[in-house]
Amino acid sequence: MGSRASSLLREEDIEEIKKETGFSHSQITRLYSRFHSLDKGENGALSREDFQRIPELAINPLGDRIINAFFPEGEDQVNFRGFMRTLAHFRPVEDNEKNKDPSAGEPLNSRNNKLLFAFRLYDLDRDDKISRDELLQVLRMMVGVNISDEQLGSIADRTIQEADTNGDMCISFSEFIKVLEKVDVEQKMSIRFLH
Amino acid sequence: MLNLWMPMTVTYIHLLLLLLDPSSALMSTQDPPPSLGNHSMDKNDVDEAEGHFTVPIAFRVFSVDYHHVQAPFEIVLWIMLASLAKLGFHWSGRIPAVVPESCLLIMVGLLVGGVIYGVRHTAPPVLSAEAFFLYLLPPIVLDAGYFLPGRLFFENLGTILWYAVLGTLWNVLGIGLSLYGLCQLGGWGLEEVSLLHFLLFGSLIAAVDPVAVLSVFEEIHVNEQLHILVFGESLLNDAVTVVLYKLFESFLRMPSVSGVDVLAGGCQFVVVGLGGLCVGLFFGLVAALTTRFTARAQVIAPLFVFLYSYLSYLTSEMLHFSGIMAIVTCAVTMKQYVEANVSEKSNTTIKYFLKMWSSVSETLIFIFLGVSTIQDVHMWSWPFVSSTLFLCLLWRALGVLLLTAVVNKLRRNAVTFRDQFIIAYGGLRGAICFSLVFLIEDFPKKRLFITTTIVVILFTVFVQGMTIKPLVELLDVKRKKRVLPTVSEEVHCRLLDHLLSGIEDVVGYWGQHYWKDKFEHFNTKYLKRFLIREDKQPKSSIVRLYQELERREQMGETDEGKRERSPENQTHSRSLLPEEMDSIRRILSTNLRNFNNKHITAYSRHTLHQDFTVDASRKACLRRHQSLGERHSSTQTHGSQVHLNSLYSKICSTLICTNCLCVLHLLIVSQSPRSAHRDPHSTREGSLNGPVRVTFEGLASPSSTYLQGQDSSSARMPKKLSFAFENEKGK
Fold first, then answer.
1. What is the dihedral of CA A35, A39, A43, A46, to 10 degrees?
2. Which residue stretches does the UniProt record annotate as biased composition, category Basic and acidic residues (chain B) (predicted)?
3. How far apart are CA B552 and CA B606, in angstroms?
4. Measured between alpha carbons, how far is B545 from B676 in angstroms, rounded to an integer?
């Protein structure tokens, strides 16, 4: 399976992905075979159903939203580039990358981009603010049914209150960053992709 | 306050000296513990003697017959001494801050030993290896295993095993070989000691001791990960130590050693480790199963825990497996099932007894270490002792550095340099080495080895034990987080955990989450069904949750009131009452974590499990309240027939069916024995109707009508619920 899969992936594609995401050659080929195994329809792109077929993801409380994060705005299919682009957010941050030229733009796995990814899990309507409702939705998904509305509401209120600095009762992205400044996001949001 | 316990101990010492016989049961290595038969014989002898003696004299009104109670009396006196010393230690003000408890206890032991030696001019009783391994060590290890932080331990298991197995091997070979080399070259008069002897010595001196590590690290509060690494290593390296020790010992007895023998030794290591593990697993599961049936004899339930654990230890010692591994595995295995099966009081009893026994054991061990240091014959050799000390430190440091360099590539959180230093420096030796060195067969230089071992133990416990705290502060090791995370941090971090788990699933990367989830699934589907009482299964988490809910309610009202008053106050981080934050945190942690489990059970594709919970609740329902049964079955059909759009509502419906039924059963049960006060409390309505109502926002109407019908009856119940639980709490 491996050889067949990698033959569909051309060298120049691999090079481009490498440049864009920072993955190594072997990591890209390995992830391509994973992509290929998920792609039941064999059309070179993944649909939502392909993701939902992953059993553990189906029982993840945030499963839907995670799946959603792979798909670009309004589209129903994600190709391998898009797949890798999303996964690039979870590459561990390496020290030598900090010396790369700043003109190349922020790498996808920088702390900022990681936090932006997490932020977008809350912020479905992409208005750059987490409203109380959006927060409540996510909380409800994570917490389950055993907590009453009022209690969940107070937890949500407390969360917003801790973050909100400009009084708009929403959490903006900068406020979100500030709240998580003590948390080691680079480490928490990284997967060691096997070589 | 020092002068409080000094006279007490001195008094006891005098008592001891008056009554101590050379043939004291606990101490000597040569005499077997005197059996009851002996004592009765003694008594008869004494009686006979008395008989000869008393016949001409009047009947003795008052007599002292010490031999009758000698063995237990002495044991109790020693334990009393140990406990009083510990008591006095805690009363003595500033000293506990500087000197760890273990050091003080050794000093007390030294004192007692010195006094005994001074008065009687013979060596005081020595800690016998048998007493140590069979009686003193198991409670400590059992306690450690029972309270082991399971999640942290398994997350770091790879690293712990890496350090334990490879690190110990490295240390043993390093110390043994280098000592041999040095002695050959050094001209200290030790040339004739063979390589095997040195390897044997290396194997027992390299072992990090869990008792000593526990007692010292308790007091310095390093971060959890570091603590579990050092502690886990000290527990697991027992397997390696046992194998190597026995291996070298048997090699010593054999005329020649071939390569095949070494290979066999390597295999034996696997056998010992896995054997201990299996024995522990077996006894743990049997214990869990036994406690399932203790509902009618709750008083003896704790006894099973102790008996089975001790049995596992003894069995594995009998089979020459690693006893420590067996008992730790047994404790870890049976803990969750036992806690679910036995009553609250039994749980408390188990925990307290464990703590008590392990505390007594530990104290006794350290005191005996001190006492046994005072001996008649010490063979001293400056170069040997100092080089041993130096090599121990050196090889440990090198080992930790090398191993960490390798293991950091594979870990998510790297072990920092500071952590490495603490791991290397925290490798304390203790009573295990001491007992092992006494068990060596006699050879010319044995006393030298004994002396060296004692010096190494004393050095590590005193010097390293006392200086580790200032060093930790100096190096600014990441301390155990005293500052609790804010609610936002907790919520967002949980989000990140779920996110990462999901991404790992997408990538197909079998990270920690995968195995953990697999195990949880297996556990819930098979083990818990088998090992936990049926009626206990859904109840406990909900009971706990409702207790939380009640507390939160009381706090929640004040919370909301304050919030309404000052919505614009941005700069204040209004400090919630600690209880409030605590309860929020607890709610978050229990629910955010439990959700995964519940989620797996509820949403599992394996219908067998779902049916089981339905069956259980159905049975429970029929047993308790017939009228609810019909509505129960109707709910099930409703729940399955309703077509739901989103994943989320589907989850909620299945969850609410099982949960709300359990809740309602609970309420019926709690309500029935008490006379009902039927006044509805409007403020309380919200709390119970909340979970019932909220899920039906997204659902189609059929189910909602059913449950709204319940609202009126459930409105009366919340008050009953708190009453019921207050009573339970009060009991």
1. -80
2. 552-567
3. 35
4. 23
Contact between residue B245 and residue B436 where contact means Cβ atoms under 8 Å apart: yes
From B368, B396, B386, B430, select the one nearest B179 (Cα to Cα): B386
Please list the residues that pair with A46 across neighbouring strands.
Answer: A78
- The CATH 1.10.238.10 portion of chain A extends over 13-89, 108-190
Contacts of B603 in chain A (CB under 8 A): 58-59
The ipTM value here is 0.91
Comparing B603 with B300, which gets the higher pLDDT? Answer: B300
Give the closest residue to B688 by CA, choosing from B650, B653, B656. Answer: B656
- Nearest of B327, B326, B342 to residue B289 by alpha carbon: B342
Beta bridge partners of A171: A130
Q: How far is B661 from chain A (nearest CA, A)?
A: 13
Smallest Cα distance from B463 to chain A, Å: 35
Between strands A45-46 and A171-172, the pairing is unpaired
Looking at the DSSP bridge assignments, the partners of residue B222 are B479
Q: What is the pLDDT of residues A65-115, one digit of tens each?
A: 888 888 888 888 888 888 888 888 888 887 665 555 555 567 777 888 888
pTM of the model: 0.59
CATH topology for the A13-89 domain: Recoverin; domain 1 (1.10.238)
b/e per residue B356-391 (b: at least 16 CB within 10 A): ebbbbbbbbbbbbbbbbbbbeeeeebeebbebbbeb
Nearest to B307 by CA among B320, B296, B294: B294
B-chain residues near A180 (CB < 8 A) = 488-489, 492
Residue B279 has pLDDT above 90, yes or no: yes
